[in-house]
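fold-stage: in
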Amino acid sequence: MATVEFFKQQAKNLLKDYNTKTFDEDEGIYVYAPRFFHDIDDIIMSFDIDEEEPFTLMKAQHVIARLAGFSKWTELIKATEPILEIGRLLLTNRESYQQRQGLFTNMVESLIVNDWKNYEELNLKNADDEIKLEVFRKVFLEQDLFRSNKTPIVTIDFTNDPNAQDMLSKIMKDKNLNSEKAILTSINQKNCIAILSTGWAGIALSLWGHDDPYAEREKIDNPKIGIKLSKDKARLLEIVMEKEKIALSIAVQYFMIFTLESLGYHI
């Protein structure tokens, strides 16, 4: 985990790079010989830094805080360890992220910070800091589990799992959906956060039907279901599979269990 000392050193490094400034009389511009921040020209432009004015350590700290996703330095030094680690990753991955996106702009101070803040606001308002760190690593840094450029098609086999068939059948009936759509609607951001934040999806899954153990389990006509996963849904499955150390078919059931809870079933 990153510490405040890491960011203090980054501010010192930025100041060192800035102080390599020399004026190119032929071009009429300042040029730099950076050792640490090779995108220093972009930083100066994005932060509208006046090269005619002194650039102090305090100003460098403010820039580092902003590139790490904080509004100001005082917010950074009060942050929790997971949020500091997100800040470190935002700072150190800004160039590679922008290259992967194929988008170069000085309209925002940092593209990865801008995208992360938007994602966080839309999807992670009630998530704790550890969950935010886990999601950030999976969604913004790691490659997709399903690497094809085309929409991946995966097969979920519930042939030998009567509980899974029973769960899926109930979702299909209550939502009037076929098996594929019943699964796909369950794989959503809300359920993903519930899985990660509660930590009891596995227990709930093992106890499915315990309130009426002798009831006959509902079956579905074709227990082998092919589903087309969007990149977003593939990422959600990826997050849960990695965090919980489970197979794809079990991860799907984790999502289904929280859909059933939302439909009023006892889990």
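fold-stage: in (second)
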Amino acid sequence: MTREEIEDWLRNGLETSGFSMAEASRQLGIPRDAISKVLKQERELSALELARLATILGIAPPQSLINAMQPAFYITVVGEAQAGLWRDMSQDYFAGYSIPAMIEPPYKPQDLFAILIGGPSINLRAKDGDHVIVLKYEAAPRGIRDGDWVVVERTKGELRELTIRVVKSNKSGGLDFHFCSDDSRYDAFISQNLAPGETVKVLGFAMNFVSRGTMI
């Protein structure tokens, strides 16, 4: 697909979805002016960014991107991320199931897992019942940074909470884990200053959000 074809695809997707360029960039986790720069031929989107953007805009990816990516395969949904839901780890049983996914090389099926999203804690990005395709932290080429979407496991004693959060830099130069919701109950964030007996672990990077409306 040529640059001009990608630009046409992008313009049509923005018009169809009603997203502004800045909002689409924010949802994608890239600088607010990035998509504007793409349309000005000052920036390019990677194949992975194009695939994510197709999901955000609710449109099919460019056909050339589909052809370049690996055929669809099934990955396992290993748990549910729901803010405020603390489960006893000794009794935390989730009946896993599989969903179809596509990935861009060099990643392999064993590098990925999926999470079911529960509740409205990130409803400005994904809704209750949607899924997120996750790249395992140990398979990622780098550590976390500002703007990343990640799966966070927080524990207190024998209790565990699993959430999807966006990474944001704080004034002291550290990184915090935030929700993304229009519900004021989810204003709180996790900082690097943990309470006694509390642990936080990033399990992986959110590569793609899959709307429940597109699930078969």
